[in-house]
Amino acid sequence: MPLAPGFNIDEVVITAMARQLHGEVLVSSVTAFGSLAAHLAKRRYAPDLAVLSTPESGMDVTPMPTLTLGQFLTDVQQGIPLTMEDIFDAIFRDRFRIWINPSQIDQWGNTNITCIGDWYHPKVALVGARGIPEDTSHLSETFYYLLNHSLRSVVAQVDFRSGAGNGESRAFLGRFGAPTVLVTDLGVFSFDGPEGRMAVRSLHPGVTLEEVQERTGFPLAVPSGKIPETDPPSPEDIRIIREADPLEVRKLELMSGPEAAEKFVAIYERERQTFHATYPRVGKWGR
Amino acid sequence: MPLAPGFNIDEVVITAMARQLHGEVLVSSVTAFGSLAAHLAKRRYAPDLAVLSTPESGMDVTPMPTLTLGQFLTDVQQGIPLTMEDIFDAIFRDRFRIWINPSQIDQWGNTNITCIGDWYHPKVALVGARGIPEDTSHLSETFYYLLNHSLRSVVAQVDFRSGAGNGESRAFLGRFGAPTVLVTDLGVFSFDGPEGRMAVRSLHPGVTLEEVQERTGFPLAVPSGKIPETDPPSPEDIRIIREADPLEVRKLELMSGPEAAEKFVAIYERERQTFHATYPRVGKWGR
Amino acid sequence: MDKRMSIDEVVEAIPSGATVAIGGSSISRKPMALVRALARSDKRDLTVIVDVGGPDVDLLLGTGRVRRVIYAFVGFEVLGLAPHFRRARQQNLAEFEEWTEYTVMAGLDATIKRVPFMPTHATLGTDVLKVNRSFKEMQDPFGGETLVAVPALAPDVALIHVNYADVQGNGVILGDGHVDVLCAKAAQATYMSCERILSSAELQRFGRDVQILRVYSKGVVEIPWGAHPTGCAPDYRTDLRHLEDYLKAAQSEEGWRRYESEFVDVDHRQYLANHGGPEELVSRLKV
Amino acid sequence: MDKRMSIDEVVEAIPSGATVAIGGSSISRKPMALVRALARSDKRDLTVIVDVGGPDVDLLLGTGRVRRVIYAFVGFEVLGLAPHFRRARQQNLAEFEEWTEYTVMAGLDATIKRVPFMPTHATLGTDVLKVNRSFKEMQDPFGGETLVAVPALAPDVALIHVNYADVQGNGVILGDGHVDVLCAKAAQATYMSCERILSSAELQRFGRDVQILRVYSKGVVEIPWGAHPTGCAPDYRTDLRHLEDYLKAAQSEEGWRRYESEFVDVDHRQYLANHGGPEELVSRLKV
């Protein structure tokens, strides 16, 4: 990936994600990228965010990317414990934001984490829709990111709509839960093309429109005039990201195969000591 | 009230109430009588009861009748805090019992705490149905008590059905929430007369059927044979009641006018000291 | 983010005609300082939603602020009926809609979950279903069972009083929670008074007792004794003497004018001074 | 009341064909010791309900105990897809019904509130609504809005694992609560394993962290490391190494047989011994 010197693609993506967040809303920490985007946003761009340390709990602590969804930080750090009911109430009341990392996203912003192929006879059974239907029927902003923008992930039509995009999916939903933005390893995309289709908003430094179009399964809507370049992360952005993720859990999402396995083991072995060092027991156990 | 020596009517009533309770269910403490019945039952008759110290919280502590619904005991004693959602879930799941003290009850076991006269033009506006509709549509046992069995309180037909009794009220409810028992200052009554109407189960020591019928607004169903006498409280029952209510909060429910006012002031002044003496601060504040 | 406001700023933010949900329960933890400020304002035609109402509803009716009351119960618990509520009901001085404890909760929850209704069996077989014009009988779409559809209750404003809060709008409730969380989540704008403002770090130490989340609160007012004359467990018990005086005052026009000038048409400092000041209240009401 | 049981007694109490709801979330706080005992039993044709499933569902599918799975998600979070779930989905080895996180919660809540359904907008505009044969589109009885009616989910049995419990069946959950409370309230019989049994007095000190109420629990089993290989915050983190071995083992028939004989077809003591014993687990997994 040709990038300007001084920063890496993960930092470009996380910073672009962070700059989308605003207001006083809960932000869930499900993936390392989502967690770091929330943390960076809170520190630099959106101080009122209520960042969670796990998918469901630990409000207003510093999230730390972990291999086990931040669960331990809830207890090791302090932070306000929430319930699953609190989380879904916050979704329904539009006080919640999450960065969703789908397996497929299509031109309408429909998203799929359920299966490749037909649901009844899947070629690959993935994980199931989880809470994406709730997000895409209630939130006023829904955020997606992908780290492997390709013909397999950015498709004309998803094999299964786990999440509702624009177009016919909106029949009974109106604007509630409509797709807002997609950040990939190539650029930032919105859903304000014709009839709510995906449009290019900006391309990351060094990325060309041709390259993006080649790796996209449908014709992208393109703004008139010069396509903006994604604002690169500032040195301060980069510093915050690196300090918040000393184990580089975020890198795992960019890797696969033996490289990922090796990194994984290394992180796992170091994680426990790091918890101890970084977060002394001051939670309920220290009271 | 002609009663055998050694016990008072409040003790007869509370003991009769206590002997109805059984199983592992939450029992709410709303009135002094209800609270003492739960406490006595737990000590003597139904050890698995989960007695609350307030209408909604403080599970598994010793309830103490207070003028302010036991609220302070929640915090001064320990006890497991519940939420209103927990309470209604327990009602819907039939894990809850409560002694309801209605203003009117009729031959079907319909109950009224809403108004005397027509709802739209009430002669006396009372308090509103509160949670009685929930109890009388979900619980497998509903318990009522009255301390002034009279033509005004035990009527042919209630002015307003705050709670659903038998008869037409059952149309959509089946047996869920049907009336189980009424304990008054005169006797114990069930609802297994013709078509689910009120029937005499037992009369308190010294009470005659004629007397009860005179003070009842409809013909009572009567069991064939001799009408049983309500089992009087044992010395142990009496001891437990008196020890649990040293301020005699329960007596207030039997009084009215200046006598009640005087008693009330006396209890109120002594209550604070008694809290201090009886329940040292061992709750969350003492942790 | 600093959400601190004055009492007057909260009242300023509530327009005439607004729908106001009030937390607490009868004589427990009502936001009375805020309610008094509203009672002495020139706001008109309020719709008040309470689950279990007490001096809050009664005072607002007594000073003529209310057009409509949605309630499961309005009363003074052990002290008896609510005088202005009773008069207003009997003389049709306002509109009243009788709900029940769970249905008020379900109506708020429907707004929280952005559904137009919640289904329940509660109120079947009772006259609440007859006089409540908002409820609707419906058939279960699966088995055709008859149910009650409880419509969403959408307060513009919620007023609650808690033990502790931080300036960001998180709130700690140590006694019974009543329906405060539902009110806070359902309202467009939640204003919270508290006994004391703590730092956010201190507040986090209360774990699951942090029940009000800042994403739902718009304003925080530090008002020691802000629930008085209702109780605020475990800080102080209900001032039953004050409430007895209230009940006496409400018996005559003259008595009520005197009560208003002494305890309503004064600011909170003067209100406390007219009770002999905080020291006197401590000696009578602190447990 | 002493509800202590052995693991085998719990399995004994679950008949073939039962509907079993399992708490926890993916690789967090799954009642794995109970699940393993069920997996090695001769029980057949279970229906498993999970909100967010992981090794629990996967193992029960892997040993052929399951006829039907109701799920919002089944996966191993950061480690990827669930191998037996994936195979069973792709080869139609069992029946699958895809729900979503909130709809599973709403289905359990419907059973708790004894209503046949709960309404929601979630799944409108998605293909979940197309493949889920239990959901039904409905019209809101007030405004005619299109909604989804989520039917009640009525588990016969719930299995959960908590940090602490008392012999009466109260349970303390210190990390994220997931849907355990809903499972416990909705099931006909809830069996709870715990890291440690405490006295009831000790348990009460945990305040609102006492989330499982004894009126809902039928059996309690003390099983230290009972969630392993999933995590049990704050006691121990997820054993990702074990789970990686699991994933490898599941790739071949032979590998799986070996895994079964070492980690499934053994009692809990032997299971721990096969990991080098508790000391070894402490050194790797205690935070």
Question: How would you characterize the overall build of this protein?
Answer:
The complex is a heterotetramer, with two copies of chain A (287 residues) and two copies of chain C (287 residues). Chain A has 287 residues and is α/β, with parallel strands linked by helices. Chain A has a single domain, classed as Glutaconate Coenzyme A-transferase (3-Layer(aba) Sandwich), CATH 3.40.1080.10. Chain A has nine helices and 13 strands. Chain A has helices spanning 9-18, 32-45, 71-76, 84-92, 132-138, 209-214, 235-244, 249-252, 257-278; strands at 26-27, 50-51, 96-97, 99-100, 104-106, 111-112, 115-117, 122-125, 142-145, 154-155, 179-183, 187-190, 199-203. In chain A, strands 4-9-11-12-13 form a five-stranded mixed sheet. A three-stranded parallel sheet of chain A has the order 2-1-3. In chain A, strand 12 (187-190) and strand 13 (199-203) form a beta hairpin. In chain A, helix 1 (9-18) crosses helix 2 and helix 2 crosses helix 7 (235-244). Chain C is globular, with a radius of gyration of 19 Å. With 287 residues, chain C is an alpha/beta fold. Chain C has helices spanning 7-12, 32-39, 55-62, 83-90, 101-112, 128-131, 180-186, 200-204, 240-249, 253-264, 268-273, 277-285; strands spanning 19-22, 46-49, 52-53, 66-71, 73-74, 95-98, 117-120, 136-139, 146-151, 157-165, 171-172, 189-197, 210-212, 217-222. The longest helix of chain C is centred in the middle third of the chain and has 12 residues, at 101-112. Chain C has a domain at 7-98 and 154-242: Glutaconate Coenzyme A-transferase (3-Layer(aba) Sandwich). Chain C is 33% helix and 23% strand. In chain C, the strands form three sheets. In chain C, strands 1, 2, 4, 6, 10, 11, 12, 13 and 14 form a nine-stranded mixed sheet that branches. Chain C contains twelve helices and 14 strands. The two termini of chain C are 34 Å apart. Classes of the chains: A alpha/beta (287), C alpha/beta (287). Chains in contact: A-C, A-D, B-C, B-D, C-D. At the A-D interface, helix 3, helix 4, strand 8, helix 5 and helix 9 of A face strand 5, helix 4 and helix 5 of D.
